[in-house]
Design a protein that fits this description.
It contains three helices and eleven strands. It is α+β, with helices and mostly antiparallel strands and 190 residues long. Strands 2, 4, 6, 7, 8 and 10 form a six-stranded mixed beta sheet that branches. β6 and β7 form a beta hairpin. α1 packs antiparallel against α3.
Length: 190
């Protein structure tokens, strides 16, 4: 087979494109959003796709109210523990966290909520949840203050991601093309 065969060029370009696509998806996971105090006090709040945002930082106080925001693109029905979700009270006063689903109705509480269940002390974090991601993959987060003094918090997801099925199919196709090229090359030498 000629050194610059169409199959070899196609497989090499396809593999390179697939690797760049996968690398771009991983680098996008490093995104951080810093919310402005008092800017998202009503349900549902701003929406952030987990493919571009992995950390949400904010500040709440009784003067400005709660923070609401939505995380989209999670695996519906998966355990919340498997998402690597962590809510942490960085500084200030204790805060209350709540996680909601919009099904079967808006603001359906799935974890946290009551001051005794969702209360988070200064410097503490919660990363173990006994609930599942809503089936539509959209999770609503509410962070509530307990005092007029500000509370700084961070909500983060682990950085792991699963490539999209199309990316995996393209990778398989390009690797198959390279394998065929290698086999033909070995057959020609024998």
């Amino acid at each position: 087979m000629p050194k610059n065969s169409k199959l070899r060029r196609f497989a090499t370009r396809l593999l390179a494109t697939t690797c760049l696509t996968a690398a771009g998806g991983v680098s996008a996971l490093a995104g951080t959003i810093n919310l402005t105090e008092g800017g998202q006090t009503t349900y549902p709040g701003p929406s952030f796709s987990i493919t571009t945002v992995q950390t949400v930082n904010g500040e709440v106080s009784l003067n400005f109210g709660n923070d609401f925001f939505e995380l989209t693109g999670l695996t519906g029905g998966a355990s919340l523990n498997s998402t690597g979700l962590t809510i942490q009270d960085i500084s200030g006063e204790p805060l209350i966290w709540s996680l909601y689903s919009d099904t079967p109705s808006p603001e359906t509480l799935i974890a946290g909520g009551a001051p005794t269940a969702g209360d988070l002390a200064i410097g503490a974090s919660v990363s173990s949840f006994s609930a599942n991601v809503p089936l539509d993959g959209n999770l609503f987060v509410e962070i509530s203050p307990t005092n007029e003094s500000p509370s700084n918090y961070t909500v983060s997801l682990n950085g792991s991601s699963t490539p999209e099925p199309a990316t995996l199919a393209t990778l398989a196709l390009s690797l198959t093309g390279l394998a065929v090229f290698g086999r033909r090359r070995r057959e020609r030498k024998s």
